[in-house]
Structures are given as structure tokens and as C-alpha cells.
């Protein structure tokens, strides 16, 4: 893994809100494939960090490189076009449009069949049978899956999932995990997650944030054994 | 595919009905219809910004006036012929909308309404300030001989009607093509959920600026055509009343429907006309109609029709 050049490389990222050091000098390397989990207690700076990576929040300091290119000053929509997809923590879909129209907006083929690509993304999350339904009428779990389908339809090189299993039933989580594992075969997945079972099940690497800084970073086994992490977070 | 055929058939049928109307209705109504079609182009432009993209502007009178005065002043003082002057009016509307958009689109919601209103008021006062040229509130008329387009005399009823119809048809088809295109879907996406749209890789600012500029192109063209077809250019068209009228026409007909602006302009025009026969307080009747609309058909006439029966209506 270490020999590969990272897909995304962040160094010295800082973002302060007034006196709050939400992100305070964070470095992060993401490989071209695999699941990298971001964990930490509430207020540790996880959402701010992915905000910085996706471009929804601008950094006070630090640099971000994506596929060898400096994207620190690039606006969010341009980063999406480079292949960084972000799924919202609070479900954000077009509730008044059909399920299919939601996903179609995410498909960006200069040529080719947009509808086929949209249907394929829907089929992948198992929502193809609901394609014609109004998105706002879907159940909460299905809306989360629609959000994921929109992320997939972007055919991202890096998919950022912000607490994707929040509010999902146990059965839905199993299907979701299988899907993420499948996506991570040929794309990088950055997963923010509170459910430790999901994290330990899916993650190839874990970064632990606390008070806006990296507390530890490593394989799930290493993180489990890390004393600082146990003290701060896992509750040893 | 059949959905597409149905949509085109309906809109072409409306255009054919408008083309046949002067053969069956008295000349008084034919002149009204010509005026309504020109004003409906203005309303269609407003609908692109408000109905499809969610930009609630209170400054569209500025864009109407930009086209009207660009054309009127170039004809009256610059000696331009109608064709180039019409083009200049259309571009003036689009250009002013683009520049106003660069500044006003940094705001949203109520702030956007206020900023656009302020720009429009500044435009209105500018017209009054250059009273030597514009003759202020009183306005000015265009000489009969200047109102000839491609050899057609725009003063006669029949050619005026045909010119208004041609303009309206171009506007309607343009609008239909836009809203059925990918760009049109992105405008709706920006209206429905701007942040989500940004995170799908679209620049919402750019989409809004495009919508506002197209809206200005429609408004400017309508203003320019009004000057040439009806021979009058006046500051009343630059007042806030016309910004509000565009909003009301679109709301009445159905915001975010292609035919809504025509329906709204037509119904409101004849409502005022009808009320004028009964009372001097025509705005009272208009107000009552709007209250009924809010109570019983919030999405406008065609919006309600679409929700109840015709889901395919674009």
C-alpha cells in the first residue's frame, strides 16, 4: 500500500471558527482504492475535515492534492467534476422530482445513454423498481440509498460518505456494507461513521480525530490496540 | 417519445389557435391579443428566472425598459432602422440582466428581491434624469415610417399581429426547448436544492446567471417589440408595477409551466378589461382574483391542472 502514490494527499489542513479549532493541522493520505474510515467523538472535526476535502468549506491553511493536482483553491463543484463525490450527512435529494430524475442529474456522460447509466446506479442500490416514484415519497432508508445512488452515478474516484448508516435498519446496513465493499474495489471510499461494527467490518485504514487533530492512524487492529485512542474514544 | 409528441402537439396547437384567432375575433380583441402576446414574452422570460430557477426578482421592469429604451432611443435619436434596433433592444435586456446578475446573484431570497428592486428603481430614475432624451414620464412615440421590419409595415393591424405572433412563437419554442434540455433540468435542480446541485458538479451561480440573462433576453426583446409594434416608449414600463405584473401573470398562469405566462397574461388582461366596464377600482377585482388564486390554486391555473390531471405538462 505504501508504495502507491496516494489519490488524495492533505497536509497541514486548518480551519478555525472563531476560537474553535475545528480542524487544526490535519494530514491525510487516501489510496486509490479501499475504505478509509474517519472516526472520533462528536465535535472532533470530522465533518469539517470532509467539508475541506470536498470544497464545501475553505481551508485557512494547508494544501490538498488530488491525483497529483493541487485542488486547495478549487470550488466544490469543480472538485466533483474531478471525481470527488460527497453524500450528505442529512439526506439531501430533490424530493419533488422522480427517483430517476434525481440520479439522472448526477450522470455526466458527454455522450452515451444517460438513462441507462442512471438505471444502472439505481439497480446497484436496489432502487430500480422505484425509479418512477417521487423521491420525497420514499422511506427514509430508501432516501439514504438514493443519496448513495447519486454518488455512484457520478462515477467518483473518491466517494465521501458522511454518516451513511445513520437511521438505517440492521438489515439495510448489511446490504449497504456489501455495496461499499464493492465500490471500494475500484474507487477510494472515505467513511465517516459512528457505528463501530460497520467501521471495523469495512475499513482498511482508520484515522482517529480528536479536538481537530489526528490522534492516530493505522489499520483497524492497530487502532484497537492504541492506548491513546482507547483513552480518548473507545472507552477502555 | 410519445410524451414528447404530445407536448409538441399541444404547444403547436396553441400557436395555430393564435394564428387563426384574428379571423374569428373582432379587431379590438385582435389588437389586445397582439399586446398580450408581446407581454407574454416578457412573462415567459420572468418564468425562466422565477418559475424554473426560483429567482424571485422584483426588478424585471428594468429589463423590459432596457429593451424598450434601447430600441426606442436608437430609432428616435440614432436614426436606426427597426431590424437592428430590435436586435439591440434584445441584447440590451440580456446585457443589463447579466451585469445586474453578477452583483445581485451574490444574494438570495428576500435580499435578492430588494437588490433587484433597487436596481430597477435606479433604472427608472435614470430614465427620468435624462428627460431631455427620454421625455420622462410622458414618454415619446416612434415615427410611423420608422416602424417597418423587413419591408412589413408594423402599424397595420394584420402585420402587427403576425409580428407579435412570430415573436411569441419563437419565445415559446425557445422556452420549450430550454426546459426539456439538460440545461433546463439543471435550472430546476438549482431551484429545488441548490447545495445538492453544487455537489453534483454544477455551479449554481453560473446556472442562475444564465437563467437571468436568458430572462433578460426575453424581457428586452418584449420591450423592444412593444416599442416598434405600438410606437410608444414610456417610463411607466420601468416602474415597479411592471415587475410585479410579470410576477402576477406567471403566478396566475402557473410558475414553471411553459404555457403559464401566456395564460396568466391573457386572463389578467381580460380580467382588468372586464372589471373596467363595471368599476374604476379595477385593482380591487385583480386583488380579489389573486386572493382566490392563493386560496384555491396556489400553483396557478396550469400548475393546478398539471397536479390534477396533466402530469406531462412541461
TrEMBL record, chain A:
A GO CC term assigned to this protein in UniProt: plasma membrane
Keywords linked to the UniProt accession: ATP-binding, Nucleotide-binding, Transport
GO MF term set: ATP binding; ATP hydrolysis activity
Record SUPFAM superfamilies: P-loop containing nucleoside triphosphate hydrolases (SSF52540)
Residue ranges occupied by any ABC transporter domain in the UniProt entry: 8-236
Descriptive protein name: Branched-chain amino acid transport system ATP-binding protein
Organism per entry: Amaricoccus macauensis
From TrEMBL, chain B:
Any single GO CC term annotated in Swiss-Prot or TrEMBL for this entry: plasma membrane
Segments passing through the bilayer: 7-28, 34-55, 62-80, 86-105, 112-131, 161-179, 209-234, 246-271, 283-305
Entry keyword annotation includes Membrane: yes
GO MF entries: branched-chain amino acid transmembrane transporter activity
Keywords: Cell membrane, Membrane, Transmembrane, Transmembrane helix
Membrane-topology annotation of the record: Multi-pass membrane protein
Pfam families in UniProt: BPD_transp_2
CDD domains: TM_PBP1_LivM_like
Subcellular location: Cell membrane
Protein name: Branched-chain amino acid transport system permease protein
Species of the source: Amaricoccus macauensis
Amino acid at each position: 500500500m505504501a508504495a502507491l502514490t496516494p489519490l488524495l494527499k492533505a497536509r497541514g489542513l486548518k480551519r478555525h471558527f472563531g476560537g474553535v479549532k475545528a480542524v487544526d493541522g490535519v494530514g491525510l493520505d487516501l489510496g486509490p482504492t479501499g475504505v478509509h474510515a474517519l472516526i472520533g467523538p462528536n465535535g472532533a472535526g470530522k465533518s469539517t475535515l470532509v467539508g475541506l476535502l470536498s470544497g464545501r468549506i475553505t481551508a485557512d491553511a494547508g494544501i490538498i492534492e488530488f491525483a497529483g493536482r493541487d485542488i486547495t483553491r478549487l470550488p466544490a463543484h469543480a472538485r466533483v467534476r474531478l471525481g470527488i463525490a460527497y453524500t450528505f450527512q442529512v439526506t439531501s435529494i430533490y424530493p419533488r422530482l422522480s427517483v430517476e430524475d434525481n440520479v439522472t442529474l448526477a450522470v455526466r456522460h458527454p455522450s452515451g445513454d444517460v438513462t441507462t447509466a442512471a438505471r444502472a446506479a439505481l439497480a446497484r442500490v436496489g432502487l430500480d423498481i422505484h425509479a418512477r416514484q417521487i423521491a420525497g415519497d420514499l422511506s427514509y432508508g430508501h432516501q439514504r440509498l438514493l443519496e448513495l445512488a447519486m454518488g455512484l452515478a457520478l462515477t467518483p474516484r473518491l466517494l465521501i460518505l458522511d454518516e451513511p448508516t445513520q437511521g438505517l435498519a440492521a438489515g439495510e446496513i448489511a446490504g449497504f456494507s456489501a455495496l461499499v465493499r464493492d465500490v471500494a474495489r475500484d474507487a477510494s471510499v472515505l467513511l465517516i461513521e459512528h457505528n463501530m461494527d460497520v467501521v471495523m467490518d469495512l475499513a482498511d485504514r482508520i484515522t482517529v480525530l480528536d479536538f481537530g487533530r489526528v490522534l492516530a492512524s493505522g489499520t483497524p487492529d492497530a487502532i484497537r490496540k492504541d492506548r491513546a485512542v482507547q483513552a480518548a474514544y473507545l472507552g477502555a | 417519445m410519445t410524451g414528447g409528441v404530445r407536448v409538441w402537439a399541444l404547444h403547436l396547437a396553441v400557436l395555430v389557435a393564435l394564428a387563426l384567432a384574428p379571423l374569428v375575433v373582432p379587431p379590438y380583441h385582435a389588437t389586445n391579443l397582439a399586446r398580450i402576446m408581446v407581454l407574454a414574452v416578457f412573462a415567459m422570460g420572468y418564468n425562466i428566472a422565477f418559475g424554473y430557477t426560483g429567482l424571485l426578482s422584483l426588478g424585471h421592469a428594468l429589463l423590459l425598459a432596457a429593451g424598450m429604451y434601447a430600441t426606442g432611443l436608437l430609432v428616435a435619436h440614432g436614426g436606426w432602422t427597426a431590424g437592428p434596433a430590435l436586435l439591440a433592444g434584445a441584447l440590451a435586456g440580456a446585457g443589463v440582466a447579466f451585469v445586474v446578475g453578477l452583483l445581485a446573484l451574490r444574494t438570495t431570497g428576500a435580499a435578492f428581491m430588494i437588490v433587484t428592486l433597487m436596481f430597477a428603481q435606479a433604472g427608472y430614475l435614470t430614465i427620468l434624469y435624462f428627460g431631455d432624451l427620454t421625455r420622462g414620464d410622458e414618454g415619446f412615440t416612434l415615427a410611423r415610417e420608422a416602424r417597418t421590419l423587413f419591408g412589413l409595415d408594423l402599424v397595420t393591424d394584420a402585420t402587427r399581429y403576425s409580428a407579435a405572433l412570430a415573436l411569441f412563437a419563437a419565445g415559446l419554442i425557445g422556452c420549450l426547448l430550454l426546459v426539456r434540455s439538460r440545461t433546463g433540468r439543471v435550472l430546476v435542480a438549482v431551484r429545488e436544492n441548490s447545495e445538492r446541485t453544487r455537489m453534483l458538479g454544477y455551479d449554481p451561480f453560473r446556472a442562475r446567471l444564465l437563467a437571468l440573462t436568458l430572462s433578460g433576453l426575453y424581457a428586452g426583446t418584449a420591450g423592444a417589440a412593444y416599442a416598434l409594434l405600438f410606437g410608444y416608449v414610456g417610463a411607466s414600463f420601468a416602474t415597479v408595477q411592471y415587475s410585479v405584473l410579470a410576477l402576477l401573470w406567471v403566478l396566475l398562469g402557473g410558475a414553471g409551466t411553459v404555457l403559464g405566462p401566456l395564460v396568466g397574461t391573457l386572463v389578467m388582461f381580460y380580467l382588468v378589461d372586464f372589471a373596467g366596464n363595471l368599476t374604476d377600482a379595477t385593482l380591487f377585482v385583480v386583488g380579489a382574483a389573486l386572493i382566490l388564486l392563493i386560496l384555491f390554486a396556489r400553483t396557478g391555473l396550469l400548475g393546478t391542472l398539471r397536479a390534477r390531471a396533466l402530469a406531462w405538462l412541461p
